Fold:
Amino acid sequence: MYNAALQERRDAYRHPSRTKVRYGDQSAQLKEIRAYDAERQGRWSFSSQQATLRRLDRAFAAFFRRVKRGESPGYPRFKGAGHFDTVVFPKDGDGCRWDSTPHDPQTRLRLQGVGHVRVHQHRPVRGRVKTISVKREGTRWYVVLACDNVPGEPLPPTGAAVGVDVGIVHFLTTSDGRHVANPRFLEAASEELAAAQRHLATFPERTRQRTKRHRAAARKVARLHAKIRRQRLDFHHKTARTLVTTHDVIAHERLNTAGMTRTPVPKPAPDMPGAFLPNGAAAKAGLNRAILDAGWGRFLTILANKAESAGRRVIAVNARNTSRTCPRCGHCARENRLTQADFRCTACGYAANADHVGAANILNRAGLVLCGGAESTPQEARRFGGGWSHSAVHPM
Structure:
């Protein structure tokens, strides 16, 4: 379905008339397609096929959005049979029905064209089931439910606020001076993962996906990546829960992770055509790998979701110069940051851990946001931050 819809869009674009084919046009053809090919297309859910067409429409929307920005995006490509690991049913009861038996560890799911499938329910479903997704991870299958009208679980107020500075050496540092170690799950499994990938690369290209040994090698690589992903997700959930439980207000930097992990632009040598100057790509690749291993974006998303459910407040502030500004006198200079870990103000002599200074400034800026003012100097923000139980400024 995805590849056929993509081929139709490509043919329409290449036609001299440059006919535009959109999601609505392709969705209107589904009734005829299902009637013509009842054995293959007609047995599946109409809504899940519409979801596949929406996925293609989002791919084209992202492509044209990048073109307008002046980037060099790749045109949407045809996908192999095993590329997609998720089937989406936009409405419960339309192609997929969830048996909402409460507290039943063996709930059954009915899939159109498949039948009833037993599901091991790991926790009770709350609210009204809206969207059902069937997801494959290696040899495991999962059911993901998106629900409406989920009741919140507000926690009792603590009267505390905290600023959080994420990093590589420490996963995060709070404004009260606490460090959370970076577990580096990818680095810990790098040797085993590299050995599995080397074994997978020994198979010649002409035999790939055709032998049992190759499929077993590919499954091992996927299994290791899945384990790393689950470890990282578990760590993010536990860390976010600790912050939400102990604080009413949580402030963090507004980060552009995609921009921070962008590959350096090549530098052509002016006197040597075809040659390039050193641009630090190797060092940047190591930094990018460490940032992606930490998973800041996923962690901040989990933090926001848990805070919303618990009735907490999460504030994202401008990250500019948070580690170069003195939280005591407000002096901002590049020379204040002596090393990655050391901060010493050249104006007043205040010395502290650089990550702790960044977290303190983040908390100060969040205080201005709560007061309804624009972000300005730390001296002004400190007047508000000092009212919280965790003060933004104190010596190490």
The CA atoms of residues 341 and 354 lie 5 Å apart. The two ends are 61 Å apart (CA to CA). Residues 2-68 form one domain.
